[in-house]
Design goal:
By secondary structure, this protein is mainly α. It has a two-stranded antiparallel sheet with strand order 1-2. The radius of gyration is 16 Å and the shape is globular.
């Protein structure tokens, strides 16, 4: 992604502003662009990581065991290989996700920040295969995908660095 009109100083200020609460801003396009760039970079790094390292050996946080345990206790039957957006975004889903996410407030840095999440774990980040989720939703689902072997498909077929994120 290009910086689309932001100079180095503006980009740095926008990046710093990402640490402030959302209520501090209206719909500032510079902040939205900086967030989108950060989310895109995170997605690219993560996909390259699971493409080059066997995901079953990855730890995404210091508390992966706790996240995974709570996730599978709360979402025992959630199908994670191919996510249904309604399981994340519908009102009943939000009511179930909200208490789960709040369990990790203060434990996972930026637990409620927006993060890009792949719907189909066998595919990369494309516009059709990506949804916006909170960081703790991303961690919970991706830790489960790693532990349950779903992300192994990406690792076994993709040479490192190939086709990580569509721009």
């Amino acid at each position: 992604m290009a910086m689309a009109g932001l100079g180095p100083g503006e980009a740095a200020a926008a990046a710093q502003a990402l640490s402030l609460p959302a209520e501090a801003f209206g719909n500032d396009p510079r902040i939205e662009l900086a967030w989108a760039m950060k989310a895109h970079q995170h997605a690219q790094v993560y996909f390259n990581l699971i493409s080059s390292v066997d995901p079953k050996f990855l730890n995404l946080t210091k508390i992966d065991d706790q996240i995974y345990g709570e996730f599978r206790k709360t979402f025992r039957d959630l199908k994670i290989d191919v996510l249904d957006p309604e399981e994340l975004k519908s009102e009943p889903a939000k009511e179930k996700w909200r208490p789960f996410c709040l369990l990790f407030e203060g434990l996972v840095e930026d637990f409620n920040y927006g993060t890009l999440l792949r719907l189909d774990c066998r595919r990369g980040y494309t516009e059709e295969n990506t949804i916006l989720a909170t960081r703790i939703q991303f961690f919970a689902i991706e830790i489960a995908r790693n532990r349950e072997g779903w992300n192994g498909a990406v690792y076994s077929r993709a040479p490192a660095g190939e086709g990580a994120v569509s721009a």
